[in-house]
Amino acid sequence: MKDRSPCISCKHRSPGCQSRCEIGKHYWAKMREKNERIREERAKEESAVRSTVEGVLRSKKRAGR
User: Fold this and answer.
1) How far apart are CA 65 and CA 53, in angstroms?
2) Cβ neighbours of residue 35 closer than 8 Å, sequence gap 6 or more
3) Residues with Cβ within 8 Å of residue 25, at least 6 apart in sequence
């Protein structure tokens, strides 16, 4: 489930307030951390898939296919 920004229902919302509001700062810092973890996991998966594919291609090349 997607986290909803606390800014959506904020009564004190104004342009650029996310950089000044402590609640907004905390929320966006948490989202940056979460997104960074997701990027790291995707990079690990991509690396594993890439090495598997490269291994298969090497095997096929040795077999003359």
Assistant:
1) 15
2) none
3) 18, 19
